Structures are given as structure tokens and as C-alpha cells.
From TrEMBL:
Coiled-coil stretches: none
Keyword entries, A-Z: Membrane, Transmembrane, Transmembrane helix
Membrane as UniProt keyword: yes
Spans traversing the lipid bilayer: 12-33, 45-66, 87-107, 139-161, 168-188, 194-211, 232-253, 265-283, 295-315, 327-350
InterPro entries, A to Z: UCP028704_OpgC
Protein name: OpgC protein
Organism: Paraburkholderia solisilvae
Pfam family, any one: OpgC_C
């Protein structure tokens, strides 16, 4: 995607779609989740989410750098790391509180186990400490700990990528290849402790940075080489889809996602290339303009992620389990639509609250 002034509607649209998908994917009985990326590929929405995070971070760094200088840009991302840490703690608290409420009223026992409430209630002081130091990450909060670390990389990686994209990519790949032994430094040895090994997943974040700093030109896409790469990307995406649909039909081992296996990386790169082709054609911008609510979700990303954890838990608990067959499917589908509408409403309400002129006046007075 070409660098431009202001926010990218395509990036916000993709982020909005991914945030909605994350909510659906964490509703165990969801119908629509069976139509999402993980059904047709070895990668899933997590790769898209992290890569887009890298892209948006590089854009934000450049914007602050141009207006206020390098020192302000560095400080902005240190503060961002603290913001994400607070969001992680809030998500963990909401997850545990949801588990406590479900356990109190004897509702949705499988979800109670997923929230981590039983282990927390058994040793609250130890669990609180482990959560605070990122050793334990209740359920949906597990994607945020690596995001606490990634903003600290931005002031170093963006200038490096501008000077030498090859060096930045080589350094990221080297860390990815050594991810497992490096994870031992943080005592990451089990998916239950860290669902995402940050030393592995930084590769997706850096790829997003490179997409912003060194975008593919329209000329290259139109060249013979570019067209051949597009054909290979289509063939690879279709090949992985066949493998996922007809060969690897059972859930794959968790460590493949935790440590970002090479198959996931290759599959994602093929899909990402095709996404770039669609963006360059203007198709994604046209779709985004017709779905402003989804774009708003992408713009209010952190709030929608935190709120989405509660939405997924509530919808899953409220979906009747006594139904069977078509009735159960219709009830689950209705729950999916309720979840989507709830995320769209949350994004719009938060955006309007942020734009409230009375709040702006208060901020001005405080300054």
C-alpha cells in the first residue's frame, strides 16, 4: 500500500474486519467462524492483525516524526506500550470477572474453564502476580502481551528499514529462526503460558513495517515479474486451501501457531500479496467506503478488541444449548449477528464519545 497523508481507509477496513473475525472466532458455537480464513488457510486472523499493526505503527511513527521530531516519536511509542499493557490488564480482569459470574450462576462451564477463573480462584495472589508479569494470560488477553513489546521496536526498526530494508528483514528473520531458544529467556515453554511467542511473531510485525516503508510499486505489479508473482500467490493460496480443507482437517498442534511456523508464514505472504493487488486496483477502497462501520471498528481497534472479549463471552453464554439441528444453527447464526452489531455499535459510540466537543473543551482547559 502506498504511503499517504492521514489514515489509510484500506488498513482501517482490514483491521475492522479482523477485529470482528476475532470476536466470532472466540465464540465456540459460531456459524460464521467456519467461513473465516483459518478454514481455508494454515494462517488466520492473528497474522493479519499483527502485520497491520506493524503497518499502522510505521505510519504513526512517520507522522509524529514529521511533526515533532524523533524524541517525541520515541516517547509516543513508549507511552503506547504502556497503554497496551493497561489494556491487557483490563482484558484479563474482564475475562476473569466473566468467568467468576458464569461460575457463580453455574452457566457455560466450558467457558469458565477457558477464562482461567478456576485456577485464579484457587491461588489469587500467585495468579495476580503471574498475570502482572505476563507469565499467565487469561484467554483472549493472550494476544496483547507481545503487543506490549512491539511498540518499543518501532523507533529502532522503522529507521533501519528506511536505511536498508534487507538488513531489517534479515535481522527479523534471524530472530524468528531463533525464537524457541530466545523464548526460554522469558520461560515461554508452553502454549498455556504464552499463546504467541513474541520472538517469532515479531516477523509479522516487521513485515507490516516494511510494507509501509518500502511499498510495492504499481510498475512492479504490472511488470512480467509482478504478474508471475501474482500467479504464484494464487496457486499457493489455492494449494494451501486444498491442504487445509481435505488433508489437514484436524486441529493443528498449538505450538505451530505459538512459534509462527514456516508454513503459516508462506501461506500468509501469498494471501498478503493478493491483498496488495486488490488494494492497488482500488477494489478494497471501494468496499471500505460502502462499509464505514467496519472502518470505524478498525480506527477504534484497542477498545473494540477489549470490548470484543466481553461480547464473545456474553453471546456464547446466551446462545441456547438445548436446541439441536437447524434450530441450533439458526440460534448460533443469530448470536453471530448480535456480536457483529455489538462491535459496530461499540466502535461508533467510542468514536462519538472521543469527538464530543465538551470533552475537547475540557482537554483544552487542562492544557
Amino acid at each position: 500500500m502506498p504511503p499517504r497523508r492521514g489514515r489509510s481507509i484500506e488498513v482501517d477496513f482490514f483491521r475492522g474486519v479482523v477485529l470482528i473475525v476475532i470476536v466470532l472466532d472466540h465464540i465456540p458455537g459460531s456459524v460464521l467462524s467456519h467461513l473465516m480464513l483459518h478454514t481455508y488457510a494454515l494462517c488466520d486472523s492473528a497474522e493479519v492483525f499483527v502485520c497491520l499493526g506493524g503497518y499502522a505503527s510505521a505510519a504513526a511513527y512517520d507522522a509524529v516524526l514529521a511533526r515533532r521530531g524523533s524524541q517525541a516519536a520515541r516517547q509516543r511509542f513508549f507511552r503506547r506500550s504502556a497503554e497496551i499493557y493497561r489494556a491487557y490488564l483490563l482484558t484479563a480482569v474482564l475475562t476473569l470477572l466473566s468467568g467468576a459470574v458464569l461460575a457463580l450462576f453455574h452457566l457455560n462451564r466450558p467457558m469458565v474453564e477457558l477464562t482461567g477463573w478456576p485456577s485464579f480462584s484457587g491461588a489469587p495472589l500467585r495468579e495476580t502476580f503471574d498475570i502482572a508479569v505476563l507469565r499467565r494470560q487469561p484467554y483472549l488477553s493472550s494476544v496483547l502481551p507481545m503487543y506490549v513489546m512491539f511498540p518499543v521496536l518501532v523507533p529502532f526498526m522503522v529507521p533501519l528499514a528506511k536505511r536498508s530494508a534487507g538488513t531489517a528483514l534479515a535481522l527479523s528473520v534471524a530472530v524468528w529462526l531463533a525464537a524457541r531458544p530466545l523464548a526460554a529467556l522469558l520461560r515461554i515453554d508452553d502454549v498455556g503460558d504464552w499463546a504467541f511467542n513474541p520472538f517469532a511473531w515479531q516477523l509479522m510485525f516487521v513485515l507490516g513495517i516494511l510494507c509501509r516503508v518500502r511499498p510495492v510499486s504499481e510498475g512492479f505489479l504490472a511488470s512480467n515479474t509482478g504478474r508471475w508473482i501474482t500467479r504464484l500467490a494464487i496457486a499457493a493460496a489455492l494449494g494451501f486451501a486444498v491442504v487445509k480443507l481435505f488433508i489437514l482437517t484436524q486441529p493443528l498442534p498449538g505450538h505451530l501457531k505459538q512459534n509462527l511456523s514456516v508454513e503459516r508464514v508462506i501461506n500468509f505472504i501469498a494471501i498478503a500479496w493478493l491483498a496488495v493487488v486488490l488494494v492497488r486496483s482500488g477494489f478494497i477502497a471501494q468496499v471500505a467506503q460502502r462499509a464505514p462501520g467496519v472502518v470505524t471498528v478498525g480506527q477504534m481497534g484497542l477498545v473494540c478488541f477489549v470490548g470484543g472479549t466481553v461480547i464473545s463471552l456474553v453471546v456464547d453464554t446466551a446462545t441456547p444449548r438445548a436446541l439441536h439441528g437447524v434450530a441450533h444453527g439458526l440460534a448460533a447464526l443469530a448470536g453471530d449477528f448480535v456480536a457483529i452489531i455489538a462491535v459496530l455499535m461499540l466502535a461508533r459510540l467510542w468514536r462519538d464519545w472521543k469527538r464530543d466537543p465538551r470533552r475537547a473543551a475540557v482537554r483544552g482547559a487542562d492544557v
